[in-house]
Write a structure and sequence with these properties.
Number of strands of chain A: 7
Number of domains of chain B: 1
Number of helices of chain A: 26
CATH topology of the largest domain in chain A: Methyl-coenzyme M Reductase, Chain B, domain 2
CATH topology of chain B: Lambda Exonuclease, Chain A
Number of strands of chain B: 8
Structural class of chain A: mainly alpha
Oligomer: heterodimer
CATH class of the largest domain in chain A: Mainly Alpha
Helix content of chain A: 40-55%
Radius of gyration of chain B: 20 Å
CATH superfamily of the largest domain in chain A: Methyl-coenzyme M reductase, alpha/beta subunit, C-terminal
Number of helices of chain B: 8
């Protein structure tokens, strides 16, 4: 380890904006003079809104003066705004809770309502078992029928109820294939064109991996998956697929052979976004706890848009992952309340993790000659103990020194778990991008945790420390139930299932290993293609920008209900 | 208090490091080294700050005194001598500290290690912004007196806080006090810090003085936290960093190939 020069401090603009008129390197400040919650326009809005609700329903609600700690409201120190990292947009912290942020909700909606279904088996069954001809024309016709049926319309029976298109406008089906000739023969409105959506090398690799098979990227209505759950997605999709095949190919609805088609078309080639969870967690497929880290890194598309910046691509995964895994999964599915949000946002606000990570990029370039701006498998460093320890140590020490030298930054990340997650993420990302090995990245994460704990004699909270103080031992193990390669670990991995501030970062460390190599995908090329779709409500290439739009109330989500409720 | 027996085969090293920070850590942990007494706080004042019972009130009990209850025939109970609080059947109560990262003399894990070496019958818990130790009530009062009166505490940068502990990582107030939303302790014009609320934030009938804040020079000389701005940079204690790297590497190897460890 040896400190390198880096004059750019990405977090300085944020600190100066947050602590206006103050010296951001000063060790002292003033407290107890900020008039409590009144310093926050958003909390003032909450009080006003609550008064209206109380008048309407006759039950008390938000009352910070009376209910917060026996009459001492929030705001005895300065309540800060936050810059969503990489966007230049400053937002209220409250607006990064998913309840207050429509973009965050939609990101999860768009994942949960997605399923990928193979068409080849169905086409073979149609041709061989039912004697039907399958051509680009029949496929186009089927896709017309399916895009009528998938949102909730009838295709075979008479006198059926149907859904209002204005309520399910986010529901549709597209297809993709590695066979460019076939893709060119299909109607463009239905095609995810790999060649147009991805940079050249990525497109080439993805097309080769998918080959001649044809896949449907299906997004059921947001409203449906919200009213039901992630397990509904494949069921809703399967029913509409079956009816559409019957309608489009003029099949007998009761013929025994249709059972063969049903299995082939609806169930034989289904890719869920998440595996179902064990009974103790009691969730079906397509719920957050079952999303593998490699697959999540494929859902996020920043490496497609920014192929020459694996650090940025990884940081976007951190933002999306902490939002989904910390704020929604652990913070609400598995626990409750609002504390998880305060914690998780540290990893994607104020450019602090960004700065630490780019320091790591400078370091791996300076010391190991990794040309990280031109991602390639050729210049990756061998992940030896010495090298991983060296990268992790230098990035960890640099981050700690930055916190020490900018007391306002320490105040920004006022919780130890916030700092621990950010420091370890920078260490892990630097090692994974340098080595192209996700487990080396995880190993670096855990060394950072131990260094941090001994340097400052503190780390996070009880459970946080439990996970991180024994993590070294499982970071390179791949024995059943004791370890796995990073790509197939996930939120439900035994030692990861318990606490906040890790899972989004682990996903990014996994992704970083591949982004640093210039790989087109991390775990599943079909998932990478599916979420490249520009028609999705949420832009998975820019999750942090989308969250910022949500926070300033400029993001338009799906799930419209105004058509069926009284006008306000 | 514990004493390390001289005939033990193992001699505790109390941690690595060549820096002043490392030496301070070892001194605090080593029960054979006496902690410097910095102030006098009466037993009654300790009870007031803790807030678990009124001064002079009897100790509430969780069970009858051990001598009066039927003890099972347990070999462990024959080996372990109960503390005074356990003998009497006291409740388990707590004291919790918040330590400023600006050179407070003790820090969370350091506190836990120190307590484990020096005290018996305790259950410490360590977080980033606070450290709690739980034990039988009369034992707690004895341990608390040591924790408050000695060099482990600075009246300005160490807080005794049961809830709403937030402050360890914040800038200091301009008078040098660590932020406390509840302002349990205040710095008087006479330069003395007084607790006006107990550790859980309930107002006290009378203020409890805990002395003057220690000066910056003393704090930096006695600190147990590495700090590159005005203190000892972590990276400058190479032995310490290499020790942590070694622990990490051995744990990693043991995780997948134990025979190499």
């Amino acid at each position: 380890m040896a400190k390198i020069e880096r004059t750019q401090k990405l977090f300085l603009k944020s600190l100066k904006e947050k602590f206006q008129g103050q010296d951001v390197q000063s060790e002292t400040t003033e407290f107890y003079k900020f008039n409590g919650y009144h310093q926050s326009p958003r909390k003032e809005e909450f009080v006003k809104a609550s008064r209206a609700v109380e008048m309407d329903r006759g039950i008390s609600m938000y009352d910070p003066v009376r209910c917060h700690l026996g009459g001492i409201p929030l705001g005895q120190r300065q309540l800060m705004t936050y810059e969503v990292s990489g966007t230049g947009v400053f937002v209220e912290g409250d607006d990064l809770h998913f309840v207050n942020n429509a973009a965050m909700q939609q990101m999860w909606d768009d994942i949960r309502r997605t399923v990928i279904v193979n068409m080849d088996l169905a086409h073979q069954t149609l041709q061989k078992r039912l004697g039907k001809e399958v051509t680009p024309e029949t496929i186009n016709e089927y896709l017309h029928v399916l895009n009528h049926a998938m949102p909730g319309a009838a295709v075979v029976q008479e006198h059926m109820v149907e859904t209002h298109p204005g309520l399910v406008d986010d529901c549709y089906v597209k297809v993709f294939t590695g066979d460019q000739e076939l893709a060119d023969d299909l109607e463009p409105q239905f095609v995810l064109d790999v060649e147009k959506l991805f940079p050249g090398k990525q497109a080439e690799a993805l097309s080769a991996a998918v080959g001649k098979s044809l896949w449907q990227a299906i997004h059921i209505p947001t409203t449906v998956s919200r009213t039901c759950d992630g397990g509904t997605t494949s069921r809703w999709s399967a029913m509409q697929i079956g009816m559409s095949f019957i309608g489009a190919y003029r099949m007998c609805a009761g013929e025994a052979a249709v059972a063969d088609l049903s299995y082939a078309a609806k169930h034989a080639g289904v890719i869920q976004m998440a595996s179902h969870l064990p009974a103790r967690r009691a969730r079906g497929p397509n719920e957050p706890g079952g999303i593998g880290f490699g697959l999540f890194s494929d859902i996020i598309q920043a490496n497609r848009k920014y192929p020459n910046d694996p650090a940025k691509a990884s940081l976007e995964v951190v933002g999306a992952g902490t939002m989904l895994f910390d704020q929604i999964w652990l913070g609400s599915y598995m626990s409750g309340g609002v504390g998880f949000t305060q914690y998780a946002t540290a990893a994607y606000t104020d450019n602090i993790l960004d700065e630490f990570t780019y320091y790591g990029m400078d370091y791996i370039k300076d010391k190991y000659k990794v040309d990280w701006k031109n991602p390639s498998a050729d210049d990756k460093v061998k992940p030896t103990y010495d090298i991983v320890n060296d990268i992790s140590t230098e990035v960890a020490l640099n981050g700690m020194e930055q916190y020490e030298q900018y007391p306002t930054m320490m105040e920004d990340h006022f919780g130890g778990s916030q700092r621990a997650g950010v420091l370890a993420a920078a260490s892990g990302l630097s090692a994974s991008i340098a080595t192209g090995n996700s487990n080396a990245g995880l190993n670096a994460w855990y060394l950072c945790m131990l260094l941090h704990k001994d340097g400052w004699s503190r780390l996070g909270f009880f459970g946080y420390d439990l996970q991180d103080q024994c993590g070294s031992a499982n970071s390179l193990s791949i024995r059943g139930d004791e370890g796995a390669i990073g790509e197939v670990r996930g939120p439900n991995y035994p030692n990861y299932a318990m606490n906040v501030g890790h899972q989004g970062e682990y996903a990014a460390i996994t992704g970083g290993a591949h982004y640093g190599r210039g790989d087109a995908w991390c775990f599943d090329p079909r998932v990478k293609i599916c979420f490249a779709d520009p028609a999705l409500k949420f832009d998975f290439a820019e999750p942090r920008r989308e969250f910022a739009k949500g926070a300033i109330r400029e993001f338009m989500p799906a799930g419209e209900r105004s058509l069926i409720i009284p006008a306000r | 208090m514990n004493e390390v027996k001289e005939n033990m085969a193992y001699k505790p090293q109390y941690g690595p490091g060549t820096s002043n920070v490392a030496a301070n850590r070892r001194k605090q942990m080593d029960p054979n080294q006496k902690l410097e007494k910095m102030r006098d706080v009466t037993d009654e004042d300790i009870v007031l700050i803790l807030g678990h019972r009124a001064p002079g009130a009897a100790y509430p009990t969780a069970h009858p005194p051990l001598a009066e209850q039927q003890e099972p025939d347990c070999p462990i109970r024959k080996i372990v001598t109960p503390t005074e609080g356990a003998k009497a059947g006291d409740r388990v109560r707590y004291i919790q500290f918040a330590d400023s990262m600006f050179f407070a003399p003790c820090q969370p894990y350091q506190r836990t290690y120190t307590e484990c070496y020096r005290f018996r019958g305790i259950d410490p818990g360590t977080l980033s912004g606070r450290q709690i130790v739980e034990c039988r009530e009369r034992d707690l009062e004895k341990y608390s007196k040591e924790l408050i009166e000695t060099e482990l505490l600075d009246p300005a940068r160490t807080g005794i806080r049961g809830a709403t502990v937030h402050g360890h990582s914040l800038r200091l107030a301009e008078n040098g006090m660590m932020f406390d939303m509840l302002q349990r302790s205040v710095l008087g014009e006479d330069g003395i810090v007084r607790y006006v609320k107990n550790q859980i934030g309930e107002p006290l009938d009378r203020a409890v003085a805990v002395g003057k804040p220690l000066d910056e020079k003393w704090l930096k000389a006695h600190t147990t936290i590495f700090h590159s701005l005005g203190g000892t940079a972590y990276r400058d204690d190479k032995e310490y960093v290499e020790y942590v790297q070694r622990i990490h590497t051995l744990r990693t190897k043991y995780g997948f190939l134990p025979k190499e460890a």
